[in-house]
Every structure is written in C-alpha cells, then in structure tokens.
UniProtKB/TrEMBL annotation:
Domain of life: Bacteria
Designated name of the protein: Uncharacterized protein
Length: 284
C-alpha cells in the first residue's frame, strides 16, 4: 500500500465521528500501547522507577478499556421492556482520571525541564505517602500497612536528602520538598504547554463539574433519556481525546526509551498515519 493511500484512509477514518468507529480507533491504539509496554519487560529494560512508569502506563490502558466498555451502554429491564442506558457521568469521571494520569506520566517521565526527574519523582511519591498516612491517624504506627507506608516514606526522604538539588536548596525550599502540598512542582497549565496537546484545563474542568455537581448530572441524565444521539456524540468526543492522549503516550514512550524498532515498528501503515495525525491535532 502506498503512503498517500495510507494517509488518506487514516484521515477518512479519523473524521468519521461515529461512536463505533472512534471506539475502534481507541481500541487499536490501546492494543499497541499494551504491546509497547510489554516490550519493556521482554527487552529486559531496567532503570530506577521503571515500576512506576509501568503502573502509569497500565492506568492509561485500563482507563481506555473502561471507557470503551462504557461507550457500548447497557440495558435495564423495566416492565418487560429493555431500556438502553449510557452513563456519561462515569465516562467523564474516567476521562478526568485519564487526563490526570497523562499529565503525571508526562511530567514524571517524558518532559525535559530544569527540575531533575529524580526530584520530580521523589516529591510525587512523598506527597502521596504523606496524604495516605494522614488518613491512618486512628491506627497504630505498628499496624502493618501503616508501618509499611511509613518505612517507604522514610526511604523516599532519605533518597531526597541525597539529591544535589536538595542539598543546594534553601531552608524554605527543603521544607517544601519534605512536606509538599502538591504532587507536582509545576502548575497544570505549565505542563499542558510543554506536552503540546493543547489546553486540557477547560476539558478537565468540564469533566470535574459534571462529576461533582449533582444538579448538572441530573440535567445530563434527563438529556440522555430525551436525546440519545447527543450522548453518543459526547462520548465520541471523549474517546477522541483519549485517542489523542494514547497516541502521544505511545510516541513519547517509544522514543524516550528507544524501543521504536519493536512492537511500534510492526503497526500498520494506516495506524501509523493515524498516530501522526492525532499527534498534530490541536498541538502548539
């Protein structure tokens, strides 16, 4: 198949906004990401925090699977009649998680900027452990799960204090590092600019609003019952976002860890063109 034909077929597929087609594209991308993730293990690629990278990649894969499943809807039987139900709130909820996972993955592993990767990951872990430990105040420090977390925190703090950036930091900065309020040292808007996926902040806020506002969810449910096509279009839009995220993750991941010549190289020409097109979509 010639390259122009592959590109044309890829573009025609991407502009087909039907839910079934967009779901098919996401599933195809997700399978490729899963294969590329498996390459890390098969090739014996080892580095510090490889386990964290793998967990974040698996989160991306699982979120895609959940959204693909939810997009098919489900039936409920009411007085011998079957009614199709689409849970758009659940789709938005997982899409919001997908955005957050993508931001964390990019911030911790893919982006290059003035803060070292070691410091970023250390702060990310310390903030998470502090948050989790704070929820266990009613348990004894010797309670096994609590003790395990506290030991892990102590180990992370030890690693942090050995970093040159920590040693050169001011007293105020050291306090910010050992007791971080946030998991990231960069604001989301700054990270969006570096990711080159366009502005995700409004999309994230929209999904958050649907999740946290009971009234908006109720209005949405009423709309879903009255206009199923509108709901299908909304879910299709979410799936396109997840495809864009997955495409960028595949590209950044395989490039960063130099595994383009494995599963990534075996993708079809059409899928390769889809990835190129998705990566350019709304990018800065």
């Amino acid at each position: 198949m010639t390259e122009p034909n592959s590109r044309l077929k890829a573009l025609l597929s991407l502009i087909d906004m039907s839910l079934e087609n967009q779901r098919s594209i996401l599933i195809e991308l997700n399978s490729l990401l899963a294969d590329c993730t498996q390459d890390l293990f098969d090739l014996g690629i080892k580095f510090e925090n490889a386990g964290l990278l793998e967990k974040l990649l698996i989160q991306i894969i699982k979120h895609n699977l959940s959204i693909a499943t939810l997009s098919k809807g489900s039936y409920i039987k009411i007085r011998e009649n079957e009614l199709m139900m689409d849970d758009l709130t659940a789709v938005y909820s997982i899409a919001r998680l997908q955005i957050e996972t993508f931001v964390n993955l990019s911030y911790l592993f893919f982006l290059e900027f003035e803060i070292s990767q070691e410091l970023r990951i250390s702060i990310y872990k310390i903030q998470g452990l502090n948050q989790q430990i704070s929820l266990t105040s009613k348990h004894s420090k010797k309670f096994e799960p609590v003790a395990k977390m506290r030991n892990e925190l102590a180990e992370e703090l030890k690693k942090l204090r050995n970093l040159s950036e920590f040693k050169l930091a001011s007293k105020k900065e050291k306090t910010k590092y050992t007791k971080p309020r946030y998991a990231r040292l960069k604001k989301p808007d700054e990270i969006y600019d570096m990711i080159k996926i366009g502005d995700l902040s409004k999309t994230h806020s929209l999904y958050s609003n649907h999740i946290h506002s009971e009234y908006i969810s109720i209005r949405q449910l009423n709309s879903a019952i009255q206009n199923t096509e509108q709901i299908s279009n909304s879910i299709s839009t979410v799936i396109i976002l997840c495809s864009r995220i997955t495409s960028l993750v595949i590209t950044n991941f395989t490039s960063k860890y130099e595994i383009e010549n494995n599963s990534f190289s075996k993708k079809s020409d059409i899928l390769g063109e889809k990835i190129d097109a998705l990566n350019k979509m709304y990018g800065k």
